[in-house]
Structures
1.
Amino acid sequence: TLKDNMENKISLELDTQNRVEIYFHGATLTSWICDNEEKIFLSSKSVFDNKKAIRGGIPIVFPNFGPWEKGPQHGFARIKKWTIKDSPRKIDDTLRVVLSLKDDEETRALWNHKFELEYQVILGVKSLKTNLIVKNTGSEEFDFTALLHTYFKVDDIGKVSVENFKGLNYIDKVKNGANEIEKREAITIDQETDRIYASTQNTLFINTGNEILTLDKNNLPDTVVWNPWIEKSKQMSDFDDEDFKRMICVEAGKVSSRTILKPDEQVAMTQTLKI
Ligand code: TA6
């Protein structure tokens, strides 16, 4: 049921043990309580000024992953105000809300295309599905990259491992974009890590130290693994110096190649998190 529908965010409560919180700013899901436990990391220093991207949660990266010449890095979707397209509704044993973002003068000034984004958030018992649909509502084709920049909450990064990447190519942004191959069964984090794995499996396993969280994805072929570690944490004003110990980003995306949409075409990209 829709609870405390404030002007900045909505909370969806499936039952007392399972609920999510979504800010209209960037349609940023900032909390996923599952079996009464928070699974998503949100920085205690995150700025909620409806300007800066929220530090944590699941920021939506569109129409560009990474730096670009048309505005802030990672595009404008995560810093625009989204609206409710379909109010929260019970569907079988899940609760679903749909949010949307359409082009406006501000976005067209940065990136001159007409689009509609639809973001379906579907909360189930022990699962959270997020489906991002990109529609080209204009008269010319455009291309984009997109990604769900999910911050997972962990107790101790030293106990975390991420699996199912062995043998895959990755771009190592910590080594000036060097092209490497993952040799490990399990990715562990003991230094700044910022890697773009291409053509990854559609099922990934995140061992948070407490449990194995499964990330199933569809039409999100790439996966970014990021932890800022010590130095980068100090450089982020909206992130505690010690917060690198309490989070890991495993980000399902479509970023290794640009997706082209012709007029009236659309594409859906889905991530389902399960305990
Ligand atoms: O997803 C990893 C990354 O691209 C890192 O390089 C780092 O920049 C991170 O995103 C956070 O970016 P942000 O713009 O949210 O500070």
2.
Amino acid sequence: MQTLVVFASGTGSNCAAIIKFFKSQTPRKAEVALVVSNNPNAGVLTIAAANNIETCLISKDGAAHPELLLKLQEIKPALIVLAGYLRKLPAAIIDLFPERILNIHPALLPDFGGKGMYGRHVHEAVIAAGRTQSGITIHYVDQHYDQGDVLLQARISVLPGETPDSLAQRIHRLEHFYLPRTIEFLLSN
Ligand code: GRF
């Protein structure tokens, strides 16, 4: 079975979707071996504990602790998935796992990406700009925020009367469907 490591700073619904997807397979192609968070109050830590997954809490600024680097080298993850991770990943980690780190962004990059564009801010900006479509982008991670090669984009219409909350909910459904399946595709290709 291949191993995955998830980095997340918040609720962790995408992490939960990944765990559920691979748990429901027979035979299982992958499992989440470690969840890393820079937020001691992150919901994702509760999700990991409920699924008996090891967790690693790092400092709020997301600095690369030597213990974390060692742990990652020991686990040798097939993929590292940033699922709502709000810090820049240290270069030391990016260098160790070239083309093996993915991020999910709740909009159609390159629009509405970059520093400060996360969560609700993204959906507010999409609606304020009068866009009729939004979506998700799953991309490789490099040294710059939201700029690595795009692997997958999926889009939905922005509905009349849409609010940031309603758009966020619909985008999350899209993410929960496509993120585990994109991971599965990469693992088998
Ligand atoms: C997702 O919308 C993802 O695209 C973004 O952060 C959000 C995380 O949501 N990068 P959750 O914590 O997985 O519920």
3.
Amino acid sequence: MAEHGFDPGPANGVLGPETAAAAAAFETAYDTTEVQPPAAITAENAPDWCRLLRSAPRPALRDLAAARGIYIGTAVDAAPFEGDAGYRTAIAREFNVVVASLVFKFSELHPSRSEYSFEASDALVAFAEANGMAVRGHVLVWHNRIPGWLLDLRPSRDEAIELLREHIMTVVGRYRGRIRSWDVVNEAIDNQTYELRQDSFWYQAIGPDYMRLAFEFAHEADPDAVLYYNDYGAEGLGRKSNAVYELVGDLVATGVPVGGVGWQMHVRNGFHVTPDHVQNGERLNALGLEVSITELDVADPHPTTEADLASQAVAYWEVVSLCLRLPSCPAVVMWGFTDAYSWIPSFLPGFGNATIFDGSMTPKPAYYAVLRALRTPA
Ligand code: XIL
């Protein structure tokens, strides 16, 4: 096994014979449709476009992604992972990286002071390895999912640092060499002040230093893992992305082992990539950092029409194309791949249908748009 799991390989565009045949058949079917994304999709022509694509053959996303040298992935939900064999089969077919939507979070892995619970996380890592996939670890430091026992402890600063160190050494150390990248710190920027958020347990217990310490502990536990700062709403140019840029720029300048910035990209239908996204990605890359898309989904307000599905396809197409265009964007990871289990309906009432497969595991236009983006020459 290569270090940190499956390596997507060089971006030379070379496909194995079976995938090449499927890709060629897909492209023929796609190219004979009258509509090409992204420019010309309208409410009038979308239904025909979608119908034609649905009968197209489909090579696996992961094969096309590997030929471009990137990872394509999904978050995995524990309940269907355990109970729905079709869910597992689809993940193994389509993706070459997985991340847990819940089971790597602090409260799940560390339910009491002296107890860790690795059953579900071990099962996901074993599944990934059995299927030649890489793993993203999510997440070590976040203001959510702090267990009650930790809050109740009211630790002193030194105790909190020791608890943070123990948690990170135990968790990252357990999977040393098997997890390609870790979200070390998640969502640390406050949306009002654009400073570090102060309503976080770790900020309150340790102060702003928690950030540096978390990266240093993670690096000590697995020196080869790529360590990420992950956030939302900081993808284009603006106050929040400037705050993230400054934050990671300071970490880089002071020798803190940060290696990447994650863009969550929980966007709404109608979203478009703009030159700002490219500029922001390029300035982060210029710091020597990777940029990965870490939690992509495209939420649609009810009811969803054929035209909405087409516009959603455009959003997915643009985001994958953006990643391929940046100097260093190794991964596009979706926050779930089927509407059967997406978190969007519970998080955003009135919205849904945010992923690339519908609730009965049929590929949506967005799926074909991702395929197409992976096949479009850079
Ligand atoms: C979400 C999960 O999908 C839900 O199942 C859970 O109830 C709450 O967390 N940003 C993140 C993710 O970094 O950890 C969140 O995941 C979605 C927003």
4.
Amino acid sequence: MKMKLKKIVCPFLCLMLLCGCSHVSFKKKNNPNQEVGESIQEMGFRDHSVYSILYPKTGIDELDNMIKTIVNDGHKAFDEKTQAYKEKRKAEYNVSYESYLKDERYLSIRLDIYESIYDNHEEVKTLVYDSKESRFLSLKDICHGDYLHALSKQAQAYFKERFPKECDQKNFQLYTSPAEENFASFVLKKDRIVFYFAPKRLFDNAASMEIMYSDFKDYLDFSPETTSAYVPYDQVLNENVKPVDPNKPMVALTFDDGPSPKYTARILDALKENNASATFFVLGSNAQNAPDLLQRMVLEGNEIGNHTYSHKQLTTLSKEGIEEEIKETKECIYTITHTYPQVLRPPYGSKNDTVVKCADDARVVTWSLDTRDWKDRDAKIVVERILKDVKDGDIILMHDLYASSAQAAAIAIPKLQEMGFQLVTVSQLYETKGM
Ligand code: ZN
């Protein structure tokens, strides 16, 4: 059975036009899966564990503190659990998020928390916040009457229609019963409420149920207003490919984990000034927030590579899980740039045969020169590391997440050219070198 939470993915990129006056100011975005909040990203790589944390900062203190508490408590618990962990396969803590605005008043945050130590464990935590009354909401705050019985009936019908065979299990009956805790995990979108059910509850896998407000209006306290308008992107991009001289030395600069609103543009500026190209291995979750940066990358002759959707260690996932992580980002890049990525870099460089198979047409790429810029946030050290070790054909690993990395790129780009290196994309490097 295939049932996934991540199915609510943007089929196309939209602009949300919101009407009405705002009660408080919070940061809104043009990303249909992350409508609110500035993305905060933290990454780390240790001997026996890795972590990648992405959460929103909305500008509403009470909500932001709650989000940080959940994320940090989870991280602390993970650190404690992995103190004695010494396996070869790295343990992992991963957080990603989605955020929704029902309207100017109600904000919903969904945190996806994934932990892989000896086993994989995933959970969804939701927060629904009323910005007018400055308080968190549970279901009973927005519903009245016998809404639990109505939900129970709806859930039974909803899943029996979709997964008739799986609905006979005892757990299914138990976890669709009219109890508040069965329906405690939900978000409010523009026109619908979405409930989440953890894995090993209704079914082995996680599941979700959507109910339109208009179909549930007898039990809801607010009116089912819909105020969104969708404006799809349809700009056609012409790729600007710079010529490569196969007889001269060349290297490929690569930037992972972005794009980031602050630093990616600075790197693009430095590349443009020096007529150089690079490859950006973007995360789907970040790419959706920065369509302008992705378009700029392509227009200025850079390459966009796939770095998965939420930066999970692919080797800990099932085949379906790997496919989902890759496909979501691939489609997202295509939606924005009308080009499919030709290269894939698995997070932490961790790959196996299944990852290579799931990459499909894209080439799986790691690196040959690691600048360790995520560890040493010092432009001078990073530049020295590049210039000291660089050789023809190198793929250089950096991250467009840090000020020091952007600064290092701005220094290293002209220096590398002075040393006689052409700065090319990863695909150009492979094609020219016949690798
Ligand atoms: Zn990465």
